[in-house]
Amino acid sequence: MRDWQVGLLERATGATLGTWNARVREAGLADEAALRNWLRQRGVTGYAQMLLVHERFGYPEFFTRTGEELIEGQYADRPALRPLFDTVIARLPEVGDEVTVQARKMYVSLLTPRRTFAVVAADTKSRVDIGLRLADPVDNRLLPAGNRWSGAMTARFPLTDVGDVDEVVRWLRQAYRDNE
């Protein structure tokens, strides 16, 4: 995720992470709120801003763990669900040309080159929820996503059986296309 954020910062501002870190040091800001305000005034927001705040004040523990360590933590107390996750991830080449997988502390994000189009989360001990960002989420198998996942997902598919992965892949393809 850090590498993705570095790329985002550089594309958005035209300056490298090293250049921004030097600017932040030179500004001599003492707290996070002051740094965020200073960055906002310079047009640095969102993930790029979060990156520079972490660079200055330190990364949270979960940020320094590997993707596999984060995923292992998600499924540690629900090992029966790990094959569902692994099957979905293995099928991602069927979904789109450029799917980026980002492990987070509580879920895994799936991104097009433009933005997040889906999330995979072991929300209960009996199912894996596939959150989908769909332009038109109308289907009797899809449920409302609610405000989970920052409200970015419009629907969710409750996955409880590997036999349903074909249907999940179909929805993931649609979400990928909707977010290219």
List keywords for this structure.
180 residues, alpha+beta, 6-stranded antiparallel sheet, 7 helices
3D structure, described in words:
With 180 residues, the chain is of the alpha+beta class. The radius of gyration is 18 Å and the shape is elongated. The longest helix is centred in the last third of the chain and has 14 residues. It has a six-stranded antiparallel beta sheet. Helix 3 runs antiparallel to helix 4. The model has no long low-confidence stretch (mean pLDDT 93).
Q: Which structural class do you get from the secondary structure elements?
A: alpha+beta
**H/E element order:** HHHHHHEEEEEEH
- Radius of gyration, in Å, reads 18 Å
- What does the average pLDDT come to? 93
- Lateral strand order in the biggest sheet: 1-2-3-4-6-5
Distance linking N and C termini: 19 Å
Task: Identify low-pLDDT runs.
Answer: none
Helix percentage range: 40-55%
* Number of DSSP-assigned strands: 6
Number of helices: 7
Cα shape? elongated
Write the layout of secondary structure elements.
Layout: H1 2-13, H2 17-27, H3 32-41, H4 46-57, H5 67-75, H6 82-90, E1 100-103, E2 108-111, E3 116-121, E4 128-132, E5 143-144, E6 155-159, H7 165-178
Antiparallel strand pairs: 1-2, 2-3, 3-4, 4-6, 5-6
Helix pairs in contact: 1-4, 3-4
